[in-house]
Amino acid sequence: MIDVILKKGKEKAVLHKHPWVFSGAVEGVKGKPENGDIVRLIDAKGAFMAYGFYNDQSRVALRLLEWDENVAVDEQWFRDKVALAVESRREILIDGITNTCRLIFSESDYLPGLIVDKYANHLAVQVLTSGIEKNLTVIIDELQKLLKPESIFDKSDASSRGHEGLETKNIVLAGTHPPERVEVRENGITYNINIAEGQKSGFYCDQRDNRRILAAYAKGKKVLDCFSYTGGFTLNSLHAGAASVSSVDSSVLAIDTLKENVGLNKFDAEKVTTIPSDVNKQLRKFREEGEFFDVVVLDPPKYAPSRSALDKASRAYKDLNRLGMLLLNKGGLLATFSCSGAMDMETFKQVLAWAALDAGKQVQFIHQFCQPEDHPVRSSFPEGEYLKGLLCRVF
Ligand code: SAH
After folding, report:
1. Ligand 1 centroid to residue 15 C-alpha, Å
2. Contact indicator for 335, 391 with CB cutoff of 8 Å
3. What is the model's pLDDT at position 158?
4. Which residues belong to the active site?
5. Where are the domains of the chain?
6. Domains 3-66 and 204-394 agree in fold
7. pLDDT exceeding 70 applies to what percent of the chain?
């Protein structure tokens, strides 16, 4: 196995079990590892520090896997990590009212660059590092052994794979091609998922708990679900007895699926207005028309892809939330989210305080939303925390 030498003074993060070593922290490489090979990281004095995946094309040159020199990172090591992750999702799936969740969440599940989502009896896999790519056969084999899925489909995302010099695939890894429509259940609500064509791996299961929490406030209310996608918040609100829901998303495919999902659950279609439009435009239109709501949900895509984009993103979040607040009846609720890892909860609260001032409103934070247990945050890897939200009462 090839040794990679860490620069003197860069030991702290590795000793604290952070899984990333940036290329700038590498002093040298004793040999020519291929990208995706497992290497030994040693300190400047030659002492062992950790095993990790090597990649000279990525800003993250090493993704550390194992800190115990006596543990071999072999096939069994990968099988054990897969099994550990799958086992820790048992409680989510046990009662049968939910049969979709994230089974493996990359670094947070000790498998850097591997994401596996379960949709009923189908799995969608994203491979974002060359190290996982090299060990994929054994990982797929273990998933088949543990779960016996009908299909395992590669949904690897083009932009992230580019960082590691990998090509995009989107192929069947095992079993049959997933059908165009897979019916899944979450919190007892049924959704049609298009694994091959849908966004990300087809469904945003990271909002499972937050949809349920919001629904508890929706009974009898007039709800506006912005960035609705296929209807997560819309359907949960209807299930809880909302008086009406307006759902806005710029994706026509998402809106069409939302309508199908309303039918699938036998909810009253008369209560739902779907608006295939840009949210910012639509919010302004509602304001001009003097339309008000009791509950407004804002679940936008990631505005800040990195820390350097945070200032610009903060302004975009502020404007969006200001508009949302202006459409609420007095004492109404704003459920607002950010899935930008670079935006922490404290900054998000400041953004909302700023939006409240601009809107001339008073805001109480009454609940803090976070990502669910199938998107764990590893204590040594705070970067794994990305989803946050606030439930605000607006006066
Ligand atoms: N709330 C959803 C997930 C939202 S994901 C759920 O519970 O499943 C973000 C969504 O925002 C995507 O569906 C995307 O199509 C939509 N989107 C992105 N930019 C938009 C814009 N400017 N206006 C309207 N929708 C937008």
Report:
1. 40
2. yes
3. 64
4. 339
5. 3-66, 75-182, 204-394
6. no
7. 98
- Alpha-carbon gap, residue 253 to 155, rounded angstroms: 18
Cα separation values, 282 from 70, 115, 323, 389, Å: 59, 34, 10, 22
What number does CATH give the domain 204-394?
3.40.50.150
Burial of 224 from C-beta contacts in 10 A (0-12 / 13-18 / 19+):
buried
Q: Which of 195, 175, 199 is nearest to 184 (CA)?
A: 195
Q: What is the pTM of this model?
A: 0.96
Beta bridge partners of 247: 225, 274
From the CA of 219, how far away is ligand 1's center (Å)? 24
Q: What is the mean pLDDT of the chain?
A: 95
Report the separation in Å between the CA atom of 227 and the middle of ligand 1, taken as the mean of its atom positions: 3
* CATH placement of domain 3-66: 2.30.130.10
pLDDT tens readout for residues 202-244? 789 999 999 999 999 999 999 999 999 999 999 999 999 999 9
> Of all atoms in ligand 1, which is nearest to the CA of residue 279?
23
Q: Tell me which residue has its CA closest to atom 8 in ligand 1.
A: 232
Residue 114 contacts residue 102 (beta carbons within 8 Å): no
CATH class of domain segment(s) 75-182: alpha beta
Determine which residue's CA is closest to atom 13 belonging to ligand 1: 229
Q: Which residue's CA is minimally distant from atom 23 of ligand 1?
A: 278
Q: At what angle do helices 279-289 and 310-326 cross, to 10 degrees?
A: 30
> Which residues form ligand 1's pocket by a CB distance below 6 Å?
204, 207, 227-230, 232-233, 248-251, 254, 278-279, 299, 301
